[in-house]
Every structure is written in structure tokens, then in C-alpha cells.
Design goal:
Blueprint lengths: L5 H24 L3 H25 L3 H29 L11 H22 L8 H20 L3 H22 L5 H29 L13
Amino acid sequence: MQVVAPSTVNGVASTIAVLVLLVEFGMLRAGLLRSQVRLYAAQSLIASLLAVFLGVVRHEPELLILAGLSIALKTVVVPLVVLRLVRQSGTATTGSGILKPAGAALVALAVAGFGFFAVGRSGLRVDGLSPTVLGSAVAIIAVAFVLMIIRNDVVSQAVGFFSLENGVSVASLVVAAGMPLILEVAFLFDLLVAVVVFGVLMRVHHEEQSTLSTAQLTDLRG
């Protein structure tokens, strides 16, 4: 049986994790809702490839099953549901947000850099993998929070939340890839519940306000 060199495992896993992070930046820059949803589907596919790779390298078939479920749910089902809601709303562009595109990119770069710095300073080490993979996962989560905060439309905020789950998935693959399959599937079930909640929110909000913008909701603040 051929053994994969640790450097090769580190290189491939780090590359996949960084690609997931770059797609997150793409969602932050996307001006069309359809583009954001498609980028989320691509990000989910890349994150699932990390599960496939680690499953093959570590000889853990549970990760292959998890990857198949993730591709079916996060790459196919969720994007199709969100795209259908977007078509029904008749809205094509994302909300304006509270920051200009350049400012949003600078904030995202800052929080992503902080994620890498925090992982490096924490001293966390994962057997067989470099800190770059875990740092990328933390950066993905941080940039997803930025996306949810700066955009003022329901779809962008939903996509930000869904992509945050991708960051958590990458982190769990790095830190606890050997956890029981039932626990890993439970994370996907939580995502499915979130899709239902956001879907209802999109539909009700559009029926009440005739828009997907959440700018009017600031009037409810005390």
C-alpha cells in the first residue's frame, strides 16, 4: 500500500482550504444574488473534496459518506431552493451594505488575517496537517460573519450563514475528523433546519415588504 507523504497531505489539504477561503471572498464581492448562491455551491463542493481527500488518506470511509451527503445537500439542494426563492422574489442584485466594496474587502482581509494569527498564537497543532488548514477554517468563519453583517438583504445574510457552516465543517475535518458519523450528519441536519427557517423568512419578508432588503428592520431597534 502506497503511503502519502505528510508534505503532500499538507499541501493538498492547505490548497483546498485556501480555495474555500478565496471563494468566500468571492461571495463578499459578488453583486448578484445568483452569483453568490452559485459561489456557495462551488465552495461547498470544494469543502466536500477536502472530506474525500482526508477520507482516502486516513482510510476513514465515514468521511466519504459525509462528503456524498454534503454534495447532495449543500451543492445541489440548498442552492436550488435559494435560487428558486430569488426567482420568485424578482430581485437580482444584493443589498447595498453598510460599507463600500473596497472597505468591505479591507475588513474581510483584516479579520481573515486575525484568524490566521489567532491560530498561530494559540499553538494548536493537528497531527499530519499544517496550521494553515485550521487558520483557513477560522478565516472562513470570520469572513462569513463580515458578509452577514455588511449586507442588508436576506439572501446574502442566509448565504453568509450557510458558508459559515462550511468553515465549521472544514475546522471539524481538521480537528475531529474521526468523530462518529451520526454527529457529522447532525451538523447537516442543522443546516437543513436553517435553510427552512431562512426560506420562510425570505418568503414572508418579501410578501410583507415587497423586497428582500432588511434595511427597514433597523426601525425596530429600541
